[in-house]
Amino acid sequence: MDLFLQYLANGIVVGSSYVLVAVGLTLIFGILGIVNFAHGEFYMLGGFAGIGLATVLGLPLIVSLLGVVAFAALLGFLAEQILNRQVKDKDPTNSIVSSFGLAVVLQNAALLVIGPQPMLLRTDLSMVPVEIGPVYLPLQRALIPVAMIVLVGALHLLLRYTWVGMSLRAMAQQPTVARMCGIRVSRVAIVTFMTGAVFAGVAGFLMSSVFMVHPLIGNMIVLKAFTVVILGGMGSVTGAAAAGLMLGIVESMTSAYLGNGLRDIVGFLMVVIVLLAWPQGIFGRKLERS
Amino acid sequence: MTRLHRRQALRLIAGATGATLATPAIIRAQTPSELKIGGMLPLSGPAAIEGHQVLKGLEFAVKEANAAGGALDREIVLMVEDDEANTTRGVIAVRKLIETDKVPFIVGTYASAVVIATMQITKEYGVPLLSGGSTSVAATDANEPGNPWFFRSWPSSVDQGLDTANAITGRFGAKTVAIIHDSGSYGYSLGDQVEQVVKDNGGEILSRDTYNAGEQDFTTLLTRIRSEKPDAVYIGGWAGDGAMIVRQATEVGLRTQFVGSGSMVSDDFIELAGPASEGFAVATLYEPSTPNVYGAEFGKRFEAEVGQAAGTLNSLGFDSTSIGIEAVRRTGGTDSKAVRDMIATGLADFPIVQGPEGATAAFDAKGSVDFPNFIAVIKDGVRTLA
Where is the chain membrane-spanning (chain A) (predicted)? Predict the structure, then answer.
């Protein structure tokens, strides 16, 4: 039983990192209809930016975190200019193809500038133990689910109670009507991309003390995030949060009881089953239009 | 193009303006005052880090040889080509070195796939190829027994795996072993080998797990292995993944003897794994603390000259280059076929820096030198030979 709880905790930590990446991805898809393949690169660059600020410049972790937020927001702004503004109106598939291109460009740029050597953010937090009953986690790992809950909670409040959030939701439901009601579509698109990129960048920074950062890590995390988005229902933030945790826990249990080699298979098997049984995702809503 | 290459180009231009009526063709081929030797390494691309380390060994060997009067009363000049760890680029590189620079031998390369692709070409031209880090048994197996044109002055990956596996049950006295390896062919062959050897030595395999190269989270796997209480855990895969596993093992409180595959011999591994690497064991061909007196002296000279402690990659580059230069000196000419014959049979008394005390360039029929690997244990962040 103690072991089971430990496996569960491990799953929640990893699942939380999936949630942070998937939330941005599902937001950009839900509001703008763009499948952003370059999302994993926001995660990767967030990790590198954090290591650069904290290790190379020697800034405190909180200041580095703010730096990563600013950097990721800028990245999101630029990505919007390329993926949404320039190409989207001509053909929706253009933005999918160009996001794939952007991913390749960012990966290779990181390879050229930073190099292939994996890096880790070294903090004193790895030595601080957190014990909850029989479950043991180093502090840096225990902080990841906490950060996830805070960030997703904040996003939820933003979407629910602010003017910006309402315009985002209006855009997601019916872009044409939203535009007729006076919502500035271009501004919504920029806010969406910036929010998505900030979530991915912060996830990259948080995970850089636990997992290695190198130019190609975006590939794997974006695949996991897509799995989460499909499971949770395209465009659903709460769905992504629930599905992300679920995927992390299922992977952990698979690795514990069935064998580590099966963990990736199980995740993608879940996607196939969910798509067959609930094509809109477990938490996705079917929109009824009159 | 490497920096070295550019520097040489400048020197050649300077020489050409000084010399009267020199034509480009004459400048590029061997000249009476210079002896060109070939180097081919991955200086860009996926194996660039390793390639640059090996190159330091080549450059150091050339520098020392020139300080001792060069060879054949000529100054030795190293011509280096970048193969990018790519077979096509490798083929172009060896052709350039042989046809344009007319080198008597080539030291190259790190990636075994590139060695296998180029060794038939160098053989056709009659130019010997000395490994620049390739360790795969497939490369020496591609030699015609008794007529080798590719030479590796250290044991193959199979022998390395065997020495490592025997150390688990022998030196570390483990009765129960858990195996973790990556799901590529490299990881599987290592896993199979260790499982076989441990069972043959009377040990028990508690569990065997695979992971995809580049996977990041091993905590659950390691928590489960902790509950199995193995005497030792063997990791077969790339250095980055190995470092991640060792790190996370400390986090989940799994304390046991970790033994890794040969790829984890680098200092980058220690850097990435941090304090968690203490006690980690890995097979190695060379350490500055080697009992090999000739090797230990090389280590001191290398560190004084280059400013970093010599490692396996530096030492093997040094050995391959020194063997080639010595063969040229002993044959007294630049005929590449005679140089090959000298390497194959005439250097059994020539000392090498790798391996135990007294190791020499005594190549066997397949072009390999066999000696036992050292098993190093990391102590205070340094690989230590017990």
Answer: 12-35, 65-83, 95-115, 135-159, 188-213, 225-250, 262-283
